[in-house]
Amino acid sequence: MQPCLLLLLLEHPDHGYALVERLKCFQVAEGDPGTVYRTLHALEVAGTVRSTWGLSEAGPARRTYHLTDVGRRQLEDLASSISQTREALETYLTRYADSAPAPSAPRVNGTARTSAANGKPTGIARARTR
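The structure corresponding to this sequence follows.
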């Protein structure tokens, strides 16, 4: 959740409830407000984010969270790490696709069919000639 919060704050500062709502696009946890506020507090204690109190047009004052320079550097490190992980996953998936057995031939009424483009009869035609 921390990397997602840092990215959201890089996009623009926001208050806690809005961050809970914006987190939904990442499909992390349940976006439980208590967890989000505890995480924001931990990030603030670590110096990754800072907060300011501001007046609200309706209701009580709200705490708005901002990304600090420390948070920006941490976010850059996270993005680099995620990029390296993505490259490793892409390599894995490419090698898997190159090495995996070909998918089974499509079946029609329980009988395997193959392409006649290679000059061989389909599974149905082959079954009829036997």
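The helical segments are 2-11, 16-23, 33-45, 69-99, 123-129.
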